[in-house]
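Why do we bother with holo predictions? Because pocket geometry can differ from the apo form. Keep that in mind while you read this record for adenosine-5'-triphosphate.
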Amino acid sequence: MSSEFANLGLSKWLVEALQAMKITQPTAIQKACIPQILQGKDCIGGAKTGSGKTIAFGAPMLTKWSEDPSGMFGVVLTPTRELAMQIAEQFTALGSSMNIRVALVVGGESIVDQAINLQRKPHFIVATPGRLAHHIMNSGEDTIGGLKRAKFLVLDEADILLTDTFGEHLATCISILPPKEKRQTLLFTATVTDQVKTLQNAPAVEGKPPLFSYEVESMDKVAIPSTLKTTYLLVPEQVKEAYLYQILTNATYNESSAIIFVNRTITAEVLRRTLKQLDVRVASLHSQMPQQERTNSLHRFRANAARVLIATDVASRGLDIPAVQLVINYDISSNPDTFIHRAGRTARAGRSGESICFVAPRDVSRIQAIEERINKKMEEFKDVHDTAVIRKALNKVTVAKRESLMSMEKENFGERRRRHEKKSDLHKSYRSN
Ligand SMILES: Nc1ncnc2c1ncn2[C@@H]1O[C@H](COP(=O)(O)OP(=O)(O)OP(=O)(O)O)[C@@H](O)[C@H]1O
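The structure, written out:
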């Protein structure tokens, strides 16, 4: 077979499955990592958002699994439920001709159903650490025994999984797996941190090939895709909603599929309701929504039934929705790496995309930190109307926002929020997995 993927050592059935998905030319990270993982090496893979990291770790694992497709083979851990669902779907689609069994183990879904699925001896488990740890702590050998024979552990979005937020649960998950000498460990992320690199310094294991570490560095050392346009817009705090509405409905963007990132669930809820009142087809995704609503929202957005998704950082990592053309950082995160992941929801797999940062006076230092991190200056966003148009938008938006706040008050949203408010939204959203 002359396919480039076959030349990297992937099985014929998998090359065909990739071909059916129009994936024929390996990306740089795939070219680099697939042969090394097939050789039995642990691997750290760093490459920009949307550059095909999932296949870089998934394809060699599936190839090795298909040589003896019986029993538990690999565990993939990810920080968010929706990303776990996406990866489980990808594995299921790629392995369908081989009757692959993939168990999805995430928070917010039925523990009993998951236990039943685990008892059916899946070949792969795709999980968020909190829920997998729960099963490990509370289930018997028939449910979790297979994990002791896993040949692979993948930490997708490894940098965030290696933070304290996940520490305890991650340790529980790893404790049941074979020791690192007897399994392959694969760490992938768009933002390789020092914590991720510590694996490189681990002492070599006798009889095991040395770890392979690969970071795709482009010529210009810019940490975001070259097809991503990054701009900022100075916006006074009190009129952010009006600017958002104006941009989403102006001639350039009124048909664009957009994700709006905010730092807090309350902001997500206010914006969703306000934009809905203003007839924007909008959905939201944050940690205080029941899982069924989270899943439905994402389905609506993927299917373009909603054109705009208002999200907290539960949506900043890994989600692959090719149609997204615009990402707006309505709030700026204090961590510059978060910008890289948020903006990376657009401009994926060589497509073009745009990111706009709303900058209130207090955000200026955060923008400077982002520019330093991505090694690129942002341009000022120009496509915004004059004061008269904004003032007109402001009137409409103020009325819609007032009604939204009133309905939230009636539904007691504030009370529910206060109960959760002790931790930051990012922390909460991940921990709730
Ligand atoms: N070799 C390829 N050729 C064409 N498309 C590809 C190839 N490899 C992957 N893709 C597609 O590119 C998109 C992005 O891939 P993927 O989600 O794995 O990115 P990623 O690097 O994990 O991004 P992130 O850092 O945001 O998680 C997916 O839609 C995937 O199907």
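The first strand starts at residue 43 and ends at 46.
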